[in-house]
Design brief:
mainly alpha, PH_domain, 197 residues, DH_dom, 6 helices
């Protein structure tokens, strides 16, 4: 447990003397569950955002297609009105074409309104709060990942080598010493430092 100065060494020794391995294992399990839950939330948000972007793109493509069809139908309608001698059967076809144009116009208006609603929601306070929430979630994920990595380093680089050394033929340290270092109340100290960071 080498440190830069004596003060840091004393702080770590004091923290390790109050550590508890059972609490450490419980805290690690809780953090892993929180980490998995946050990963599920992030994946869900990514899926929803992707679906919304796809719907917006599809809506824009559909609007362009409808515009071109409406322009063609309006030209046909002008040609029909320009011909003075129209047979009675042509009236039925004109009415059908007019109804078709009206249906296309209604669909285009609905899609434009839907696009406006989506854009208003993107600029709304709720969407802004959701973006801030996602930032908090990502920062929590980064913090939890760093904390788990530090625990991994502590166990693999310190606890296990000391236990192996205590089990050797000429042990430089006993199992009781290892227990007194690592098996008290170390978790609370580390959790306090993580919350401060």
């Amino acid at each position: 447990l080498r440190t830069e100065d004596v003060k840091d060494c004393d702080e770590w020794v004091a923290a390790i003397s109050h550590a508890s391995y059972r609490n450490l294992a419980t805290e690690h399990e809780t953090l892993m569950q929180k980490y998995l839950h946050l990963l599920q939330i992030v994946e869900t948000e990514k899926t929803v955002a992707k679906q919304l972007r796809q719907q917006i793109e599809d809506g824009e493509i559909e609007i362009e297609r409808l515009k071109s069809e409406i322009a063609g139908l309006l030209k046909d309608n002008e040609k029909i009105h320009a011909s003075p001698a129209a047979a009675p059967t042509d009236d039925d076809s004109e009415i059908k074409k007019i109804k078709k144009v009206q249906s296309f116009l209604r669909g285009w208006i609905c899609r434009r309104k839907w696009k406006t609603i989506i854009q208003d929601y993107i600029r709304s306070p709720h969407a802004e709060s959701m973006r801030k929430r996602n930032q908090v979630v990502f920062s929590m994920l980064d913090s939890e990942a760093e904390y788990v990595q530090q625990l991994h380093i502590l166990v693999n680089n310190f606890l296990r080598p000391l236990r192996m050394a205590a089990s050797s033929k000429k042990p430089p340290i006993t199992h009781d010493d290892v227990s007194s270092i690592f098996l008290n109340r170390w978790v609370r100290s580390v959790s306090h430092k993580s919350s401060e960071e």
